[in-house]
Amino acid sequence: MEYRMVIMYVEIGCFVTSLCGWILVCSTLPTEYWTFSEVSSLVLTTANYYSNLWRDCISDTTGVSDCKDYPSMLALPVHMHALRALAVSAVITGFFGSVLTLVGMKCTKIGGTEITNARVTFSGGITYLVSGFCGMITYSWWANRVITQFVDPNFKSHKFELGAAVFIGWGGSILLISGGTVLTYFSGKEGLPKSLSKGPRRPASYAAVRTRQTYMRPPSSRVTLVPPLYYSDGRSQITRGAGRTTPIENRDTFV
Fold first, then answer.
1. Beta strand pairing status for 161-162 and 35-40?
2. From CA 119, how far away is CA 98, in angstroms rounded?
3. What are the domain boundaries of the chain?
4. Could you give the 3-state DSSP secondary structure of residue 199?
5. 27-61 confidence digits (pLDDT tens)
6. pTM for the model
7. Residue 66, CB-side half-sphere exposure with 13 Å CA sphere
8. Which CATH class is domain 1-32+77-191?
9. E strand spans, the chain
């Protein structure tokens, strides 16, 4: 099987995985079962309390249920605003991640060249990762507050437990992170430029052609003087070190 076909199947699998995770995250936003609590009374009725980021609800065994939105947005604590922003960010970034991945995949042939498609797919994988981390932070923060209040003996208000929506959100976030990671790795290997070699590059140099003159030593222009030579008739002659000297027949004449 060719490498391109393998990458194409990997992209399809990552896209389906991330899309399923995004759908799971989206399904938790309108669901009220983020937290729940059951209260029994002496009568044969049981009240169930459950809530999410947007409203509080109550139902009983007679089938009557009622939901009430939070009365004031500005009166909510800071963590509720942060959780809402993270949840909406997870949905929006997951949508754009699906669009980018669908455009850049090799099987759709919507984009331009192979490099362009790989870069678009890489952008989609990064967007999926952002969506998954936003969702994971949202559900983990919510679960941490619920568990902290439940195990705190000094917390006198009504205590809740984790609902099914939190676990569904965790599963969807894990799928988003897993699909985005694999998608980013394979598309980044193809679309991003290769890193340069370590260390500074040496400038281009030109090789010199060795000729016969390369090995010839240039003549020296330095003049070496030697002591003058004296002859028997009183004449003297200064010679160069490189020249040929006249032999002296009788050295005792000037010693």
1. antiparallel
2. 14
3. 1-32+77-191
4. coil
5. 999 888 888 887 765 556 677 888 888 888 888 77
6. 0.69
7. 4
8. mainly alpha
9. 35-40, 46-51, 55-60, 65-69, 161-162, 229-230, 236-237
